[in-house]
Amino acid sequence: MEYRRLGKSGLQVSALSFGSWLTFGKQIENGIADELMTIAYDNGINFFDNAEIYARGKSEEVMGEILKKKGWSRDSYIVSSKAFFGLGGKDLKPTQKGLHRKHLVEACEQALKRFQLDYLDLYFCHRPDKQTPIEETVWTMHNLIQQGKILYWGTSEWSAQEIMEAHMVAQRYSLIGPTMEQPQYNMLERNKVEGEFAQLYKTVGLGTTIWSPLASGVLTGKYNDGFPEGTRLGIEGLDWLRDNTLVEANMKRVKELTKFAFDLGMTMPILALAWCLKNENVSTVILGASKRAQLIENFKAFEGRDRLTPQVMEQIEQILKNKPAPPSF
Amino acid sequence: MEYRRLGKSGLQVSALSFGSWLTFGKQIENGIADELMTIAYDNGINFFDNAEIYARGKSEEVMGEILKKKGWSRDSYIVSSKAFFGLGGKDLKPTQKGLHRKHLVEACEQALKRFQLDYLDLYFCHRPDKQTPIEETVWTMHNLIQQGKILYWGTSEWSAQEIMEAHMVAQRYSLIGPTMEQPQYNMLERNKVEGEFAQLYKTVGLGTTIWSPLASGVLTGKYNDGFPEGTRLGIEGLDWLRDNTLVEANMKRVKELTKFAFDLGMTMPILALAWCLKNENVSTVILGASKRAQLIENFKAFEGRDRLTPQVMEQIEQILKNKPAPPSF
Amino acid sequence: MEYRRLGKSGLQVSALSFGSWLTFGKQIENGIADELMTIAYDNGINFFDNAEIYARGKSEEVMGEILKKKGWSRDSYIVSSKAFFGLGGKDLKPTQKGLHRKHLVEACEQALKRFQLDYLDLYFCHRPDKQTPIEETVWTMHNLIQQGKILYWGTSEWSAQEIMEAHMVAQRYSLIGPTMEQPQYNMLERNKVEGEFAQLYKTVGLGTTIWSPLASGVLTGKYNDGFPEGTRLGIEGLDWLRDNTLVEANMKRVKELTKFAFDLGMTMPILALAWCLKNENVSTVILGASKRAQLIENFKAFEGRDRLTPQVMEQIEQILKNKPAPPSF
Amino acid sequence: MEYRRLGKSGLQVSALSFGSWLTFGKQIENGIADELMTIAYDNGINFFDNAEIYARGKSEEVMGEILKKKGWSRDSYIVSSKAFFGLGGKDLKPTQKGLHRKHLVEACEQALKRFQLDYLDLYFCHRPDKQTPIEETVWTMHNLIQQGKILYWGTSEWSAQEIMEAHMVAQRYSLIGPTMEQPQYNMLERNKVEGEFAQLYKTVGLGTTIWSPLASGVLTGKYNDGFPEGTRLGIEGLDWLRDNTLVEANMKRVKELTKFAFDLGMTMPILALAWCLKNENVSTVILGASKRAQLIENFKAFEGRDRLTPQVMEQIEQILKNKPAPPSF
């Protein structure tokens, strides 16, 4: 396994990590979840990603139960949660979601209970909250660190401007600012990580824990011949993801890439993961495997990465033609 | 004339203002320049925009000479300059451009001499400078304010992230941050002002002095039937502007808008200016007229603005179909 | 016993103190450890030095067990630990060492458990960590103080530049900076304490808890006739210490000093300890005795120190000829 | 010419620059001085180094007179002075030297008069002053920047610890800290630039304007056969330089290097300059030529630098054997 610093922080996170979104407590049985985490840990993965909203809390319960059973040394792995959506659903009370102090504090406490842990290593603000001043959010996350309930805090799907504002507030009050951001990133979705965030790696030393490296499965090539039922993008409530990803131009790209990967002697998913690993501003690529074989296969991404020479990268660029424009001046 | 606060600052700038880019010292004779400025001033325009690079210093000389001759009270108008490009040309020495302390200080001194003025009201960093830490730039602009050589400082064509960084630095050292940004803004170019900067109006109270409200003339409708020689977009060195603006989709928009303006009973340029004035986050719309009649006509934009009801604005939106997406969450 | 302030702090530490490096949990039996600590405590030593890496955690367990058994009042002694190396060994995971927040927090918790204590008096960063920003380390140590888990924090084998940077960060965020540094210091190794750190005593009020006052035994004179097996410098993994210390020039110095000590009427080790005590910038001299008689003998260092008149010190300087040059200007 | 940023600042300084130490107003006639500066400027050198003590003020007078006569654009070059020694000599009053506010302010004013300039680009504290708190010095330099009398300030022959302290003070009071340091640096004197300062390039973005790249001529090879009268190192008052440099080990190194340079097809001085240019942490190498031919010859250093492959650098290291040890941990 390869380890990378989480942005400028000293925490070393495995370059591939394991997330339980859409799987734990939902798509897969707990026995499979156990097997997957064991394979991940045994192969050097040290970061397990989670969130309150994943399977409405059940994903954290399943993961916590496995961690307890395994008895791995607490200092050998990194666990995250994310707050914002609450446990979802229509009956949520106004105080049960968002980034105000009450929800962040209560959500953290609840996540720790579901995990059966004393502290989270990483805690994310799952979305920006226009109804809460960033000041209140930064203060709350800082206090959670001071209380020892979390070690590092970050954001997910925030804009560069919002991340900068969080750092500005942190500096103004001498607080600990956000360490990492969890954006979507893959061959079909590059704007934030390669464009908008470009300066943040230098100015605030932003780390990134990227999700959806396979574009919800589109980059496996499995939708090349149409959109079958029962696959991830068919899940209710994910229409927004589907609509952005399954556009015609992308389907054309994936077909060409699949052929290109074949010529390179690797599979389409391995090429897609390898390509993400190639980006030095990516701290870790979160895998969302639901099957043993799939997860084991994914570790070939490092070999794949080593074969992405500048020439090969340039050929990929010719197929993708979606590189974010550099700043005009 | 209508006056608006320059962002959160207390300085009131006329909602239409007058810029000398591409005209003073270059396209038009000094006599015309005098006439135009007089018409502008007599109609309540109080902001005259300039930059060191405009006609390589000559634009400032011409403007300064006119101001001197007219003898208008110094406290009745606002004058700007911008530094970054130096005087342009191939023989520039490395110390004669950029946003480091030496160039900003020397450029300010030189602009004051060309203008024959004791201080500038507004001083802009004409572009971001990747080779100078923003810290050095903020410190220098602050010191120029302290020395009484400039009154407010701002940026031009910076990203939201860079503007936030400038404010972060200003706050850290208790310095005066940038008050305004000068972005391109018009019906065809909306991303920065309506999208990227959206939060900045609230967080740092950003003012905007927008340039190219007519998209370099495209929004006058004069290119509707092709691209004649001798017009602004034919000027050598402005290919970048031309290439972004004269795309097919835009030409289609302008044709429809021209018809729409006619139905509304106003000309295309007046509709374009009125539409800019409608945006409350625009502090002032910089006009770049080179002819008397053109400038006088432009003042009708206020009447035009008053006729842009919510319904009309929505119809325009249906033609433009280029409204920047709000942040997804 | 004589007590000295730990740098500018108000904490009074005994001028001789007792460290368990290489002995507790390793070279000596727990019964001997108990005897040595009892002699130390009864003779007024109030500081017991330790680290996570000493005997891979066992040194802390042994010391903690003794402290518990003795029942000495907790406010009558000072206990330290140090984090950086983790528990050592080849199987360490990347998150189990270094000065990032996760390791410092977890290492502190683990040390407290091994010690069976509620808080450490002194907590050291055992080495600088180039992979973690000093900012993250300072914040974490500050927070541990706020949480009541440690009372003072310091560094060990850091450079003057790094210590200054820690203070700069502390000042910037209004945090508590490092109080003390634990450097090697003895007649043969003077550069850091007398040269590099010279200004730090004044500027930041640095305290020093010096280790190896006898240069790993070389200054006892026992290697004067060669390097016997089974002595400290023969321990595997300490080659770096041996190589720096056992150089020919040093052996010559020690032979002359041994004779000089004899003429003064004291033993070589007493002269060496007395000489360290003579330096006012040394807060405490950590003894590493493994035998009763040896420890008891060491207390004569105070008498010895009182006989080091300016003349005698000058004669020693003539033998050592290794006084760090003062800054050239 | 090649230009480099002065540390993290945005000011671009020529990689070779020209200093007047020991020459202007002293060893060489003013006509020669004029010729040398003209050659330098025409070849792209944009930094002229000076100090109050050089020829007791005469060096600045000569340089100022030449700059005036030439009429080069003020924004095309960078001029420095340094304060600390006053004008030297035995009759100096206590207020006429050092880094207290009175001398720094008066020395700056006097240097400007001797130069006939309105401001200095760079102003150095020529040595550390143990009799003045660094706080007073930092405040004074900051105020001189605010008053527009200097643009950047720095230090010369300060220790890493002192430079850090200056930055700490600057930060505490929100002042502008030192941008650059002027240390001695050459193949025979590497400790400060390669060892002691190693972290400062990263932490505070230190720029370096290095002096004595030829080790006072020793690296020209002209002393290979003994120490003739009438050469630089024979100058009265430079015994300290002579004593450090002309040691036997160095003479041996230079003899071997001279042969090595010959085999490489370049002269000894060119090799010595090229080797300095190779170090990326060197912002500029100050040349001290006193003859036309010598100065013109020096520009070959860039060609020479391009031939210093990693292999060649390693061979040089084998001859020098004086690379500063990296930090032990």
Spatial ordering of strands, largest sheet of chain A: 3-4-5-6-7-8-9-10
Helix content percent band of chain A: 40-55%
**CATH-defined fold name of chain A:** TIM Barrel
CATH H level of chain A: which superfamily? NADP-dependent oxidoreductase domain
Largest sheet of chain A: 8 strands, parallel, barrel
What global shape of chain A is seen?
globular
**Multimerization status:** homotetramer
Radius of gyration of chain A: 19 Å
Unreliable segments of chain A (pLDDT under 50, ≥5 consecutive)? none
Order of helices and strands of chain A: EEEHEHEHEHEHEHHEHHHEHHH
On the 0 to 100 scale, the average pLDDT of chain A is 93
| CATH top-level class of chain A | Alpha Beta
CATH structural architecture of chain A? Alpha-Beta Barrel
Can you characterise this structure?
Chains A, B, C, D: Belongs to the shaker potassium channel beta subunit family. Chains A, B, C, D: Pfam families: Aldo_ket_red (PF00248). The structure is a homotetramer of 329-residue chains. Chain A is an alpha/beta fold and 329 residues long. Chain A has a single domain, classed as TIM Barrel (Alpha-Beta Barrel), CATH 3.20.20.100. Chain A has 13 helices and ten strands. Chain A has an eight-stranded parallel β-barrel with strand order 3-4-5-6-7-8-9-10. A two-stranded antiparallel ribbon of chain A has the order 1-2. In chain A, helix 1 links the parallel strand 3 (16-19) and strand 4. In chain A, helix 1 (30-42) crosses helix 2 (58-70), helix 2 packs across helix 3 and helix 4 packs across helix 5. The interface between A and C is medium-sized, with 25 and 27 residues.
